[in-house]
Sequence to fold (502 residues):
Amino acid sequence: MKIKYILLPFFLSAVIISTRSIAQSVQQEKYRPQFHFSPKAHWMNDPNGMVFYNGIYHLFFQYYPNGTIWGPMHWGHATTRNFLNWDEKPIALYPDSLGMIFSGSVIVDQHNTAGFGENAFVAIFTHHNQKIEEAKTGLHQYQSIAYSNDEGKSWTKYKGNPVLPNPGISDFRDPKVMWYEAGKKWIMTLATKDRITFYSSANLKNWKRESDFGADLGAHGGVWECPDLFPLAHNGKTDWVLLVSINPGGPNGGSATQYFTGDFDGNKFTTKSKAVKWLDYGTDNYAGVTWSNTGKRKIFIGWMNNWQYANQVPTKKWRGANTLARDLSLNEVKGDLFLCATPVKEVLPFLEPIYKKALVTLNKEIDLSTYSGSLNGKLKLDFNFDKDKSVKIILSNKEAQKLVIGYDSQTGYYYIDRTQAGKSDFENGFAQKHIALRIAESKNIKLSLVVDVASVELFADEGLTVMTDVFFPESLMNGLKISSEKSARLSDLSIFGIKKVR
Ligand code: FRU
Fold:
């Protein structure tokens, strides 16, 4: 007993030193994002079961703990209070006799509708059964539930699983459940091959099919996955948004997330808009959905990757990271509604002002590397300019690799060009220039860029057009130039570093 007490301080300091050195080595790995979530080791894909409770934002995720390529899926778990400091927790859900644990959602059962306890966390997810898949009956995906009475630390699978058996649809997955207050019932939004099917339930255990949406609407270049349905208030009105990820068939190739705006009456979703709209025009924002239990605020996070090359990207100990968490809002342009995504406000206290100028006249090019040089490949860059000017931002490193982000006034397109941004030989289609048509109509263009070692997120026109791309530079991109063929005026130009967050 005594010996134990004497040894305890030594033991504790050894633990502190070793966790600190793990954190440090994780931070120093090549391509490792510094303020975006990535698992310490192994494979990650879709964000799952995001839920807010007691000041903590929980993130679960598709996780394979035995390798760095996709394998039998578990739910990993991480938590944050500010979306930049992430605390990775033990695995939440393991595969079982019913199958692997595919994507799904978590709700807080405030009124104990399921009988697992007041405020129990209930996870609603897809079981994917490999044996049934091999038998080729098409019945291998069905929906199951699990609950936690300790805020997500430990989970119990419900004995009556599955709660929604497969009706004969081979792609039948990714349930996102929300409470529909007007009808006092749960609504499950489910991806069912080439459409979305809505189900309702009073207790999360018995589900009734309500309606289908989308077989003849939107983009259909690939199977529909990971949907989300939620209301968003704007200008004194409320409209509903339906997110649908598709793979492949994205606007710049591979996986991407489209959305529909419209109305949901508790049974059916309807839309008047015929145009295909994308939540993000970059290639690296997939399977994203929103946090539950955040009231009117809708916070989104996506998997910063693309199935086209997700299993080949050249990271070593881990594969997969998430986008920044983003606040979603609706805005009207030309009589149509569009979704806007901007970095969550929780990021603001971490921004370190490095450079600020109200007006800079750009005579072909300015070199801002003196300011970006010590930021270790992490920065936020903001400025405004006139839509008649083409403007380029060039990030570069000592190997002369470069990532070019810009706006072309001739075509009205934003773009990210990663053709010379580093390693790209792991997949033929990776080294590409990606484009996104400007949606906003204003004369003034507002650009904001967030860079974190191996990713760039472009928020144009306050998030009306968003592009997220990953890239793999040999060394940190610390050089920064802005150029324009003609002279241009940049207003409110600022560069921020991101304070150390681990
Ligand atoms: C989307 C997805 C989901 C599925 C999960 C499996 O990326 O294919 O439809 O549930 O990944 O890991």
